[in-house]
């Protein structure tokens, strides 16, 4: 269980990105964080991933306060943000994954096997020897997801993984998310109705406040109205 309790975050420029957000996500569930541009989704995801500290509130994973226990958080939470600058432009797909795999403590045969596995999962087989700078936007995004999968985590966070992605790749991403969602906690920020319909639950955020929740399987026909109602 991941629990966010009363999380507030104000940036140095005075913007209150989160004004006291609380939510709970059970293991074995995939939850969408939905909200318009600037709603506070990325800020919330970064706080859960412990990339950013909240001003107030706590985040616990299986009862462990991850704000205070950064080591536990880094071991058990992985995030795909699509940030291009975090890759080595001149290294190939495989070399980038090997580098980040090593940072995750993988070595030798274990590293090789894991890199091959995530390349296969994200359909990057034919691009292994292509340098990062030569990849298309969609392929970069797939590599970013592959990197997040290098870690055997309890929580998988995807920040708008389908933005600018073609239909086939989107299907591949949902297959990965579905598989993970059976045993892990998956958090998926998105604006897209089609993505929302594939989640177990939608949490809507507006102006730094949680404004609604919808259980998708019980209310699949309501997703569009739910979305219209909160924005
Ligand atoms: N580093 C920062 N410094 C100052 N303000 C920031 C920073 N990051 C985000 N903000 C502001 O905080 C608010 C929430 O931003 P956030 O990126 O969390 O929203 P979002 O819901 O992810 O938006 P989008 O859908 O556009 O990615 C916005 O008003 C944004 O301008």
From TrEMBL:
Q: Which UniProt keywords apply?
A: ATP-binding, Nucleotide-binding, Transport
Source species, domain of life: Bacteria
Task: Please give the SUPFAM superfamilies that the UniProt record associates with this protein.
Answer: P-loop containing nucleoside triphosphate hydrolases
The record's annotation in InterPro entries points to: AAA+_ATPase (IPR003593), ABC_transporter-like_ATP-bd (IPR003439), ABC_transporter_ATP-binding (IPR050763), P-loop_NTPase (IPR027417)
Q: Where are the transmembrane segments?
A: none
Identify the residues that the record assigns to the ABC transporter domain, covering every copy: 2-227
Molecular function terms in GO for this entry? Answer: ATP binding; ATP hydrolysis activity
Presence of the UniProt keyword DNA-binding in the record: no
Statement: the UniProt record of this protein carries the keyword Nucleotide-binding? yes
CDD domains to which the protein is assigned, alphabetical: ABC_DR_subfamily_A
Coiled-coil positions:
none
Would you identify the family this protein belongs to, as annotated? Belongs to the ABC transporter superfamily.
* Protein name per the record: ABC transporter related
Organismal lineage: Bacteria, Thermotogati, Thermotogota, Thermotogae, Kosmotogales
């Amino acid at each position: 269980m991941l629990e966010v309790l009363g999380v507030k975050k104000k940036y140095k420029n005075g913007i209150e990105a989160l004004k006291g957000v609380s939510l709970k996500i059970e293991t074995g569930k995939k939850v969408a964080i939905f909200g318009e541009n600037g709603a506070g989704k990325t800020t919330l995801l970064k706080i859960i991933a412990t990339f950013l500290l909240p001003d107030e509130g706590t985040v616990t994973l299986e009862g462990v306060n991850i704000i205070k226990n950064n080591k536990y958080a880094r071991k058990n939470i992985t995030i795909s943000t699509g940030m291009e600058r975090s890759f080595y432009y001149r290294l190939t797909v495989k070399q980038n994954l090997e580098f980040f795999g090593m940072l995750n403590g993988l070595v030798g045969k274990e590293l090789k096997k894991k890199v091959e596995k995530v390349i296969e999962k994200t359909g990057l087989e034919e691009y292994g020897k292509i340098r990062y700078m030569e990849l298309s936007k969609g392929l970069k995004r797939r590599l970013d997801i592959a990197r997040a999968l290098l870690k055997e985590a309890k929580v998988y966070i995807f920040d708008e993984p389908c933005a600018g992605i073609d239909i086939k790749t989107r299907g591949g991403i949902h297959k990965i998310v579905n598989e993970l969602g059976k045993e892990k906690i998956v958090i998926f920020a998105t604006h897209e109705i089609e993505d929302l319909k594939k989640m177990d639950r939608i949490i809507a955020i507006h102006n730094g406040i949680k404004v609604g929740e919808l259980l998708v399987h019980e209310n699949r026909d309501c997703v569009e109205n739910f979305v219209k109602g909160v924005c």
